[in-house]
Design a protein that fits this description.
This protein is an alpha/beta fold. Helix content is 34%, strand content 22%. It has a five-stranded parallel beta sheet with strand order 2-1-3-4-5, sandwiched between helices. Strands 13-14-15-17-16 form a five-stranded mixed barrel. Helix 7 packs parallel to helix 8 (223-231) and helix 11 (292-305) packs parallel to helix 12 (332-355). The chain starts with a strand and ends with a strand.
């Protein structure tokens, strides 16, 4: 029997692409298993040194646990480490959508753009990702992704809507639009389009529960996009807008094309237009040359914005990026101290945001049960737990928030 298993590291785009690979295997008669598979596919990430390390450790573990398993590795990791790490087959990023063909025949027989392909399910998830764009040309000095994935390429609108319709038929109540540079969608299409126009079309799809945008850069949050979010009862009241730093000097040498004042003005504009919306973000600590003053400026921005969640990353140099050549490396001890301080502030900010939900009704998509409680996410991307005996999985239900503490948010069904 042909059996397979899959491991994914990194972003939502990688998770989507793993599902695409999974479906290609299943179509060829493979059966997915976690017990001694014939083939194991690793979709690797190289955005940080930690991501590299995890890929290497997994390969070593697989070799030790299942020495007969044929190990395939692909993803951005391969672009940065083309020799692989002792795997049987190394598949470049551009060929990951035809791994089965390369695996079984060793020769490419089909020529398909991965953006012409669609998933029809999303295994082990209650919310489904739909990749609408690939590539990035922003060239932030710390980021290796543009070198790994190339310039932005958009999936055709007709393919996106068909894919979403198929996922709705499978029972998914939340669709998450994702891309390497999500807001760049439509720039390369003919005729040109944009994310606001795409949202208008998606909203009309029958049976759609709700739609969420994954990470989107500040420059793409135009007035039409914000107005579309406000006017829609299906687009989630949540935006993930990477900040990376709250200091203008650091932003400049990162090649981030906005100032801290511009970032905060946009946040204020959106808050005024859409009260109650939640903001999540990414921040890097310990970027080369970051002084205490620079870091404190970041803390000031965090306090002013009031993020509901922050992903804090310690800077790690990536070979081939401009920042890897910068002087002024920060001591690891200082980076750890700054990371701890920012994470504590992030918890406080999250708590303050969630406290504003007390005694209010939120819409929750329930995903899993733990003991007597069901857990799920509100449209503002707050995890809520609710006591219930019935099976609530994959249901979107109104919940009244009755208790908030630093760790969790408790609600009751209405």
């Amino acid at each position: 029997m042909k059996t397979c298993s899959f491991f994914t590291f990194g972003c939502k785009v990688n998770q989507y692409e793993t599902q695409l690979i999974r479906e290609q295997f299943l179509k060829q008669g493979y059966e997915e298993t976690e017990q001694s598979p014939c083939v194991c596919v690793i979709n690797g990430c190289t955005v940080t040194a930690t991501a590299d390390k995890k890929c290497r450790q997994l390969v070593k573990s697989l070799r030790k646990k299942n020495p007969k398993t044929y190990v395939v590795i692909t993803g951005c990791y391969v672009e940065n480490h083309p020799q692989g790490t002792g795997c049987d087959l190394i598949v470049p990023q551009k060929d990951k959508h035809r791994i089965v063909t390369l695996l079984e025949d060793k020769l490419p027989k089909i020529k398909l753009s991965h953006l012409n392909l669609s998933v029809h399910d999303f295994a082990k998830h209650n919310r489904a990702f739909v990749k609408i764009e690939d590539g990035c040309s922003n060239f932030c000095t710390y980021c290796i992704v543009p070198l790994m994935r190339g310039a932005p390429v958009s999936k055709k609108q007709s393919i996106i809507t068909r894919e979403i319709k198929d996922l709705i038929k499978k029972g998914f109540n939340e669709i998450i639009l994702t891309g390497v540079d999500l807001g760049a969608w439509g720039d390369d299409l003919s005729p040109r389009s944009n994310i606001a126009e795409l949202l208008m079309e998606i909203e009309l799809i029958p049976g759609l529960g709700r739609i969420r945008l994954s990470s989107i850069e500040l420059k793409y949050l135009t007035k039409p996009v914000i107005e579309k979010i406000i006017s829609s009862n299906k687009i989630c009241n949540h935006l993930h807008i990477p900040l990376q730093s709250g200091d203008d000097h650091i932003l400049k040498i990162m090649n981030r094309k906005y100032s801290s004042a511009e970032y905060m003005r946009k946040i204020k504009e959106i808050k005024n237009m859409c009260p109650g919306i939640s903001f999540t973000t990414d921040i890097i600590v310990g970027f080369p040359g970051e002084s205490d003053t620079h870091f404190n400026n970041t803390l000031k921005v965090v306090k002013e914005v009031g993020f509901s969640r922050i992903h804090v990353f310690s800077y790690s140099p990536r070979e081939k990026t401009k920042a890897a050549e910068f002087s002024g490396r920060i001591d690891k001890k200082i980076i750890r101290e700054r990371k701890d301080k920012l994470q504590k502030l992030a918890m406080q900010s999250s708590h303050e945001f969630r406290e504003k939900l007390l005694n209010k009704t939120v819409s929750v998509l329930f995903e899993r049960k733990e003991n007597d409680y069901w857990r799920g996410y509100s449209d503002s991307y707050v995890e809520v737990k609710t006591k219930a005996k019935d099976n609530l999985e994959n249901l979107i239900l109104p919940v009244k928030v009755i208790k908030v503490n630093r760790e969790e948010t408790l609600g009751e069904l209405l």
